[in-house]
Structures are given as C-alpha cells and as structure tokens.
Amino acid sequence: MGEFQSSATQDEYYAAVDLGSNSFHMVIVRVLAGSVQIVSKNKQKVRLAAGLDKRNTLSDESIERGLDCLRNFAEKLQDIPPKNIKIVATATLRLAKNAQDFITAGENILNHKISIISGEEEAKQIYLGVAYTSANQGNSLVIDIGGASTEVIVGRDLQPVYLSSLNMGCVTYMERFFTGGSITEEGFEQAIAQASEEINQHEDTFLCFDWEQCLGASGTPQAVTGILVKQGINDAIRLPYLHELKQLCIAAGHIDTLEIDGLVPARQAIFPSGLAILIALFERLQINNMQISGGALREGILYGMLENYQKSDRRQQGINQLVSRFHIDPHHSRRCRKIAVSLCRQMCKQTDFCDFDTEVITGAAAALHELGLHIGFKSYHEHGAYILSHVELTGFTTLQRMMIMHLVNMHRQEIDLSILKNYKSAMRQMLINAMRILRISVILVNRRKDEAIPEVSLLVKDNNEWHLQFTQDMKVAHPLIRTELVHECWLQHKAGWQLILD
C-alpha cells in the first residue's frame, strides 16, 4: 500500500515537480481545513545543464542522471491523484535539441505528462510562488538564479507586471568562467561582465519601476543568507557582503578548497558563478538590499492548482494556522494585534526609524505573542520564540520571521538587548521601537476584553522619550493596567528609554 493510501481521501494531496537545470525538486502537500501542509520534499542535484555541449545536445550521461532521479520520484507520485500533479521542465530542456528523448523516457517512468515551460511562464510561476509564500507590499522585484537561466520579475501583490528570463545560470557560468574549478579574479570579472551584458537589455525597464522590496528565490540568495546567519549577521543581503564573499572565493583559488563558514557542500561548486550573477544584478539594477522569499517555482505551480488560495491574505493565513495549531485564543490575538498596529502607525508618523516591515512584524508578533502558553506560563515568551524558530510562517520572508521571533522573545519581563546585537544599527533601532510598542500593547489588553482596553494615544518626543496619553484617569478606571505600565516604565528606563504616563 502506498504512503498516502491510508488517508480518508487522496484528493487532499498535491504534488509539484520542477526539473531544473541544476536540481530536480519534488514537493508534496496536504490541503486540509484551509491549511497547506508540506508533507514531503525531495531534491536531487542532477546538473542537467552541465551535460549540454556547444551544439546544445544533452549528453547520454546527463540524461541518465536525470532519469535516475525521476525513478526515485515515481514511487511517491503513484500515490497522488494524477489531476493533482504538475511536472514542469525549465531552461536546459528548453535549449536541448534532443530534449524529447529525455521527455519521452521521463513520461514513461512517471506515467505523467512533463511540460517544458517557456522562460516567461517560468518567470510568472516563480513570481506567484514568491507572492503566495512571502506576501509583498507595493511593487516587488523578484530574482531567481537557476542553473541555466535567471528570472527577473517586477510585480505587485499577485500580479506580475514585467517578466524576463535571462540566458545566464550558475551551472552554465561555472562551466564557462570557472573552468576546471579554478576561481580567479579574471573569471569573476568576465562572469560579471557577461551577466551585466545580459541584464543591459532589460535594465531601463526595471529601473523605471519604483519597487519597494527585492526578494530572492532559491539557490544563490539562500546560500548567501545561510552564510550571513552562520556568521551572526541578521540582515538582508547587501552588495558589500557580496564583494566580501567574492574575495573569499578568489582567496580559496579552487572550488575544492572553497570553505566558507555557512556554505553548504552541495552549493560549493556553483557558488562562485551564482555569486558573480548576483553581483551583476545588484550593480546594474541598483539593488540596495534583498530578502529571501519563502517559495519559488514549485510553490507557484502548487498554489496555482489551489484556486481558493489565489486571492487569500497569505500573511493572515499563516498567522491563523499557528493560532489554531498552538491553541492561541483567537479573540485575544486579534485584539492585541489591533492595538499594536494602531500604536505602531502613530509611532511611525513621528519617527524616522520605521520602514514597511515595521507594522507587518509588530502586528504579527502581537498576534502570536502567546504562542508558547500551551507549554506553560513561566517563560512562555521564550517557548514562543523557540517554536517560531522551527515552524513555517506563510507570507513572511526569512528575515521577517527572524524579527518576529525576537520580538516575541522580548515582549515581557526584563529587556535583554543582546538578543538584537547581530542586527545592523538602523534595523536594530526599528526593532527596539517595535518591541516597545508590543510590550505596551500586551499590557493594555491584559484584561482580555475589548471593552476593557483603555483609549490611548502615543506621543513620540524623540526616539527615547515616549508619552502615553489616556482619556481616563487610569488610577480609577484601570488601576491594575496602570500598575503594570508603571513597572514597564521602570524596565524601559533601565534599558535607557523614557516612557511617561500622561
């Protein structure tokens, strides 16, 4: 009996398979009660693009590597209803003159149709995968560096506006500019120059869009973020980090001796080539920073099959899933989020230390601040942070999830600013302001009744001096809340800030 046969209905299961130029991926999800649960992920390095010769013919060896992988995938796919399966192939099989040889054999193995999608369709699906899993605000620039192509897209919410698929990838550039595994300054410069030339034909179009955030999907951006996190840097990807990594690669001299703390061995061989492409994109498109999305092509394919998810609020969906899963009081979650967002908006009108992430992460942390209560009241803020470090949170980028985790950890008791030491100064100040808002909000709603929340406004005189202004005499109307706020004033004073009750 197959792995999923015991389910009450197989129709709950969906599968997406992405036959990429570097890796083949398969993800299987279960859809139940409005929740999408990943139940299986398989990834295999095939490096199909490395088997293309100068005449764009795939070698027999590379075809066999790919077919071996599909034989592994076939076992699980046989348990999924055929109508719930979608299998797509990308750049290498678009280019290969003998692609049909692979497709025919692959379809026989999988007993399912394989679709070779165009570069534009790939870009569209990547954008949707990013949008479904990392809800964006305003215009977003989305970048996915694949093995043989790089997709660059500008869109707004779920609507891609401009799609491009560029003829550059980490596997093809590895073969071309880092021959035999040699890593040199000259190889980097040639790769960056060639990538810049590819980008040039779209540069003016992309620069005319006023995007508010740049999101990287999969591969090289994830590898860079993994390195930053391992080295204790809680930040978005920025060009200076990329130049530092380039010098580390050159100093290594060869892929076999390339050892960077946080770089996983599976990406070692193609990291310099992907890094060169990423540097060219940052320089040509004037990217200030890039965050990592929660999904890409596979997720775009999957959510495209789930029509009821196409217009849903992904962030709210992600929060609702955790509220239900960890038995948070939904009414209290909503009331705390409401007051936190209200105070946050007031604060952001009066200080420079706000960006479009501030309200998003403050509201989410407020909604999830009681996540750890089901473990126990004592240190439940620490329990909640631990849980957030190990669960998915749909609709939020990797960096946003990290910030939400740290805010939940700091929403009560003594203030330990060492938790934020690995953030850059401007981001750290933004998080401090968000944390102050969250701590105040949790106290204001502690009677757990909507009608018992005092009316309050926030006056920010400078980044350190905040005034809470109440319409009622708090000593009379809310003595317990006032007592807790007075204690919070003392805790914030010890941390170096003034919180004054007016």
From TrEMBL:
InterPro entries, per database record: ATPase_NBD (IPR043129), GppA/Ppx_hydrolase (IPR050273), Ppx_GppA_C (IPR048950), Ppx_GppA_N (IPR003695), PyroPPase_GppA_Ppx (IPR030673)
Superkingdom classification of source: Bacteria
All residue ranges annotated as the Ppx/GppA phosphatase C-terminal domain in the record: 315-488
Entry annotated with the keyword Hydrolase: yes
Keywords carried by this UniProt record: Hydrolase
Pfam families, per the entry: Ppx-GppA, Ppx-GppA_III
PANTHER family the record matches: EXOPOLYPHOSPHATASE (PTHR30005), RETROGRADE REGULATION PROTEIN 2 (PTHR30005:SF0)
Descriptive protein name: Guanosine-5'-triphosphate,3'-diphosphate pyrophosphatase
